[in-house]
Amino acid sequence: MLYRLKKAGFSAYLVGGCVRDLLLGREPKDFDVTTDARPEQIRDLFRSCRLVGRRFRLAHLRFGREIIETATFRGPPEEGLSENGRIVSDNVYGTLEQDAWRRDFSVNALYYNIRDFSVVDYTRGMEDLEAGRLRLIGDPVTRYREDPVRMLRAVRFAAKLGFTLHPDSETPIWELAPSLQEIPSARLFEEILKLFLGGCAVQTFELLRRFNLFRWLFPQTEACLGEEEQGFPRIFLAQALNNTDARIAAGKPVTPAFLFAALLWEPVRKLTERYQQEGVPEFQAMREAAEAVLANQTNHVALPRRFSLPMREIWYLQPRFAYRRGKRPLRLLQHPRFRAAYDFLLLRAQSGEDQEELCQWWTEFQEMGEKERLRLVRVSTKSRRRKPRKRVDKPVASTEV
């Protein structure tokens, strides 16, 4: 692709995370390209090209299952700043050097030149890379105000790379953290997935709390963290995030619904207890608490229905584990969300909730044969049928006169 652009008379460079990771000896997750070709010119060169983006047009080039994101060099924004300094329009093209100064962090502004196999560095990114330092390009306050999501990106890269934030890039975050409220909740949802599903969820969580960012993403959970009881819910969250990192490291799938169910469990649990103290039945209390917590959360971070529904089911099934007689445990075992709910119960037990005996029972129950299960819960193997009522013939009315 790079050579086709070059052959057509354009300049083209690998840029960003792929160059950074290659220099660090890591395997890049994906490859990004930047060029002086305009989006329409890129589309004319590649049949597999699709143009995307509103704020800034990008070309997506498909090669088999891979998509290579290609962007035209960006220049400084001429217009399109909101009152608080956010960039709302960004279709301004520029030179390679202008493009470098528009990028977020110096270690992400390194360009690999295929003409002479060199690395182009305008922002001292190589120096920061060698020092293990993450430094925002330009004035940090201005750059964070342009796009508050950069604060979340700072945390994500610091956790992922094991880098320290430059003091000038770190200090403004505490003051500007509330500006995350200006970001659409749907965009924040996507950013949270990147934060917690990158294999460094525990470190990310600690940094989010350290920089006062977590409270603007999960205010209800943050309020509970301020009322810790013997390390709970902090231990619960740490265990959930540790498990997430372990699954990612092992190449196993991670369900966002399970992660969000864990992140919001403590607010749901506490509100359920409060409703029960007010006389609301257990199952109804759980449902009302879940709805209230989710309604509040969506004001901050959007939760798509495809995730909020399984979250509810994971929570709703927790009280049902306590019922171990009759047909209830058999029905629960057949529930499509049983495995996720059971794993959630194990997580609660591992974190110090008094659920060890219950977990042991359900672990053994799953391993039993059908007859053993029926015997344990004392359900008769014979189906009970109602005896048919005897038919009583009604007297026939006499037709005789």
UniProtKB/TrEMBL annotation:
Q: List where Basic residues composition bias occurs.
A: 381-392
- Mind telling me what this protein is named? Poly(A) polymerase I
**Where do the tRNA nucleotidyltransferase/poly(A) polymerase RNA and SrmB- binding domain residues begin and end?**
162-224
EC number(s) given by UniProt: 2.7.7.19
Q: What residue stretches are annotated with the Poly A polymerase head domain?
A: 12-135
> What job does this protein perform?
Adds poly(A) tail to the 3' end of many RNAs, which usually targets these RNAs for decay. Plays a significant role in the global control of gene expression, through influencing the rate of transcript degradation, and in the general RNA quality control.
Quote the catalytic activity from the record: RNA(n) + ATP = RNA(n)-3'-adenine ribonucleotide + diphosphate
Kindly give the InterPro entries that the UniProt entry links to this protein: NT_sf (IPR043519), PolA_pol_head_dom (IPR002646), PolA_pol_I (IPR010206), PolyA_pol_arg_C_dom (IPR025866), PolyA_RNA-bd (IPR032828), tRNA_ntf/polyA_polymerase_I (IPR052191)
Q: Does the keyword ATP-binding apply?
A: yes
A single GO BP: polyadenylation-dependent RNA catabolic process
Q: Which NCBIfam families match?
A: pcnB
Record-linked Pfam families: PolyA_pol, PolyA_pol_arg_C, PolyA_pol_RNAbd
What domain of life? Answer: Bacteria
- Annotated region (Disordered) at 380-401
What does UniProt list as catalytic?
Answer: 30, 32, 104
**What's a Gene Ontology MF term here?**
RNA binding
**PANTHER family found in the cross-reference section:** POLYNUCLEOTIDE ADENYLYLTRANSFERASE FAMILY PROTEIN
**Which family does the UniProt entry place this protein in?**
Belongs to the tRNA nucleotidyltransferase/poly(A) polymerase family.
Keyword terms, alphabetized: ATP-binding, mRNA processing, Nucleotide-binding, RNA-binding, Transcription, Transferase
